[in-house]
Amino acid sequence: MAGKFRHEYKFCLSRGEYLGLRARLRAILPHDPHAGAAGEYFIRSAYFDNADDKALREKLNGVDRREKFRIRWYNNDTSYIALEKKSKSHGLCSKSGCVLTREEAAAVFRGELSGLKQSGQEPALELAAKMEFQGLRPRTIVDYQREPFVFPPGNVRVTLDREIRGAGFRPDILENQVFTLPTGDSVLLEVKYDEFLPDLIRELVQLDSRGAGAFSKYAAARGYC
After folding, report:
1. Paired strand residues for 148
2. Is 189 in contact with 205 (CB distance < 8 Å)?
3. Is 48 in contact with 139 (CB distance < 8 Å)?
4. In degrees rounded to 5, what are phi and psi of residue 218?
5. Nearest 5°: CA angle at 131, between 128 and 135?
6. What pLDDT, in 10s, does the model give residues 126-174?
7. Residue 119: phi, psi to the nearest 5?
8. pLDDT grade, residue 91 (50/70/90)?
9. How confident is the model at residue 90 (pLDDT cuts 50, 70, 90)?
10. Where are the strands (E) in 152-193, listed by range?
């Protein structure tokens, strides 16, 4: 599944800012239906990088055109696992990906590429090629709790990510419990949209009064590996 390029803004919130914004969002916007009755879900991701920390260095240096690969699943349910490639170009972001079986993901975590090569899916084939020729490997585990909101005009998605935690990668991540450590106490606000951001959302999240940051959950978690 290929994604179009979208606008994306990120802001770090204090605890007080988070509680106030969450109350406003809950009063006006619906949750993403995928969040279920709870209105939120847990995300665990394994991020890839090479021995030279290419993805990390490009993020920290603000390289305009960059990409990163991750494998993620939700609510500790490994019946649905997604391989995703996130790209950034000229300030816009896009995401493409495909679904992996638990067995396929476990093989990738062991460094076995045959399943990716045989899948016929473009993101899987690209990851296999870059693991083989660029030395990409799973490097870091990132956990967090996400509360997602949606607003159809502008295809807007607003998310609040809290309890962000990290750990060094372990190949047995699908079989055994992995303990992660907090990366800080901030909450991350993300605002994503297509061509335009409706005034309602701009005012709701107080976009014009915030300074967009370059916070990266992956970069924050790399302190543990």
Report:
1. 159
2. yes
3. yes
4. -65, -45
5. 170
6. 999 999 999 999 999 999 999 999 999 999 999 999 999 999 999 999 9
7. -70, -30
8. confident
9. confident
10. 156-168, 181-182, 187-193
